[in-house]
């Protein structure tokens, strides 16, 4: 029977990752991500999956970010009944992140209802822009199906053998290597940037017959990582000297922990004046606790610090805001401070309230340290919007906008190419996914020119035979 690879998300876009490996007598799902960005992308979350999910034998997760896992509970509600395989750290993070996603959906729906009631409704019928994909109970149900796997241990799926390698993207992220009757399919998931604090660099996979590779930064090179901590220090110091606040939209998992790691020496050494740093995200707080539980994912430098008694995720002045009341009190502070809050693309969560209070302040800085999807509020601000809408209100943008791209958890173009150079036997067929237009086409051209491979850029819903 012919094997096929189907692309039902993360194809032609960065978000919504969802693929299917069809072995002929068995269908295996890879990721079940949420589409994020503009309204058109958001609408794809409610259009189904493009295939009969009840026929999936199992689902494998590359890592815990919502654009790779955010529809998992909905997939289960839609008929998927099999086990979910991931690393141990990914399983822990999914429990946290999916519950948070369910709460955000519930909050958005509640806010829509209240606004509709304030406007008098529409003939007695409520119109919601944020219908619920799932609830916390749905998350609780699907988490029972997780079967965590160790890195570098082959697992027999029946018809294919799976090995997970460290992708170096976030804690627990994995490159998937399928051995199918001696033929190898490698799926990069999201590849990490080399030298990322705390976690290890991506593992080199020596051979593959087919490769699926991400392209988020397929046309870009990150800023010099060697000076990014100095740039962070400079932005913070300049803002504090002006009497303003530094607001950092950051993914709760990965980015927040990296920033704490790099702020730590400046605060402990006194190079920065005494300042309070707020982690305003229950998920970020819990994620940091999960990080501490998984030293098997740490790099040598982090383990050396821990052995010396210096925890890189803790320092004087670090504050955790667990409740909504604690979060609101941050915006009543008169003293300059730093806030790290989710969501990383400013698509929801507590970060929106901090933007409300700071986006029009000339002395404050909004610092972007990661990818902002097309159509997201973060992308609008990063691209220089003069006015933005937050929670239905319009704000003039007067705050200083700064970007340090070298904090991205994604490999840039040179790093993607260097990772692919690790193949002793280069794949005969490459599929480029998880990127926007220019990133996709540029990486595809580079692979064709440098490696001479047959390269395709799948569109949403495309299917390819693996021959």
Overview of this protein structure:
This protein is an alpha/beta fold. It folds into 2 domains: 3-120 and 127-220 and 409-466, 4-Layer Sandwich (Metallo-beta-lactamase, Chain A), CATH 3.60.15; 226-407, Rossmann fold, CATH 3.40.50.10890. Helix content is 32%, strand content 20%. A hairpin with a 4-residue loop joins strand 2 and strand 3.
Summarize the model shown.
Helices cover 32% and strands 20% of the residues. The chain has 467 residues and is α/β, with parallel strands linked by helices.
CATH class of the largest domain: Alpha Beta
Number of DSSP helical runs: 14
What would you report as the Rg, rounded to the nearest angstrom? 22 Å
Helix content: 25-40%
Query: The CATH topology of the largest domain, please?
Result: Metallo-beta-lactamase, Chain A
Assigned CATH architecture of the largest domain: 4-Layer Sandwich
Main beta-sheet strand count, sense and barrel state: 7 strands, mixed
Strand content: 15-25%
The quaternary state of the protein chains shown equals: single chain
Question: How many domains in all?
Answer: 2
What is the CATH H-level superfamily of the largest domain? Ribonuclease Z/Hydroxyacylglutathione hydrolase-like
- Unreliable stretches covering 5 or more consecutive residues: 123-128
Termini separation comes to 11 Å
Question: Could you tell me the mean pLDDT?
Answer: 92
* Estimated structural class: alpha/beta
Query: What's the overall geometry?
Result: globular
Q: Total strand count, please?
A: 22
Strand order of the largest sheet: 6-5-4-3-2-1-22
């Amino acid at each position: 029977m012919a094997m096929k690879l189907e692309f039902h998300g993360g194809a032609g876009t960065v978000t919504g990752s969802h693929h299917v490996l069809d072995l002929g007598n068995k269908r295996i799902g890879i990721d079940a991500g949420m589409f994020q960005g503009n309204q058109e992308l958001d609408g794809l979350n409610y259009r189904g999956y493009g295939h009969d999910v009840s026929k999936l034998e199992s689902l494998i997760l590359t890592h815990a970010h919502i654009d790779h896992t955010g529809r998992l509970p909905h997939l289960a509600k839609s008929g998927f009944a099999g086990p979910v395989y991931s690393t141990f750290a990914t399983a822990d993070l999914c429990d946290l992140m999916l519950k948070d996603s369910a709460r955000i959906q519930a909050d958005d729906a509640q806010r829509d209802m209240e606004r509709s009631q304030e406007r008098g409704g529409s003939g007695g019928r409520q119109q919601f822009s944020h219908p619920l994909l799932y609830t916390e109970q749905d998350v609780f149900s699907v988490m029972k199906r997780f079967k965590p796997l160790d890195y570098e241990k082959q697992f027999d799926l029946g018809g294919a053998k799976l090995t997970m390698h460290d992708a170096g993207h976030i804690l627990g992220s994995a490159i998937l290597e399928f051995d199918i009757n001696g033929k190898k399919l490698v799926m990069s998931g999201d590849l990490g940037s080399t030298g990322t604090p705390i976690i290890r660099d991506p593992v080199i996979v020596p051979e593959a017959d087919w490769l699926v590779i991400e392209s988020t930064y397929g046309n870009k090179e990150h800023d010099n990582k060697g000076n990014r901590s100095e740039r962070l220090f400079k932005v913070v110091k300049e803002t504090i000297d002006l009497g303003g606040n530094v607001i950092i939209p950051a993914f709760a998992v990965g980015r927040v922990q990296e920033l704490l790691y790099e702020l730590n020496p400046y605060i402990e050494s006194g190079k920065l004046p005494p300042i309070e740093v707020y982690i305003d995200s229950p998920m970020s707080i819990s994620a940091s606790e999960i990080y501490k539980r998984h030293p098997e994912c740490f790099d040598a430098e982090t383990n050396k610090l821990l052995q010396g008694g210096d925890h890189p995720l803790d320092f004087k002045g670090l504050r955790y805001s667990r409740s909504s009341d604690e979060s609101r009190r941050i915006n009543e502070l008169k003293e300059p401070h730093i806030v790290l809050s989710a969501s990383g693309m400013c698509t929801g969560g507590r970060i929106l309230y901090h933007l409300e209070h700071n986006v029009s302040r000339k002395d404050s800085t909004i610092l972007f340290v990661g990818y902002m999807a097309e159509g997201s509020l973060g992308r609008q601000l990063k691209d220089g919007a003069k006015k933005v809408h937050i929670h239905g209100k319009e704000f003039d943008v007067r705050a200083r906008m700064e970007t340090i791209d070298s904090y991205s958890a994604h490999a840039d173009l040179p790093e993607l190419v260097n990772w692919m150079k690790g193949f002793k036997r280069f794949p005969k067929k490459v599929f480029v996914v998880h990127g926007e237009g220019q990133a996709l086409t540029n990486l595809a051209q580079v692979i064709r020119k440098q490696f001479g491979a047959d390269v395709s850029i799948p569109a949403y819903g495309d299917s390819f035979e693996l021959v």
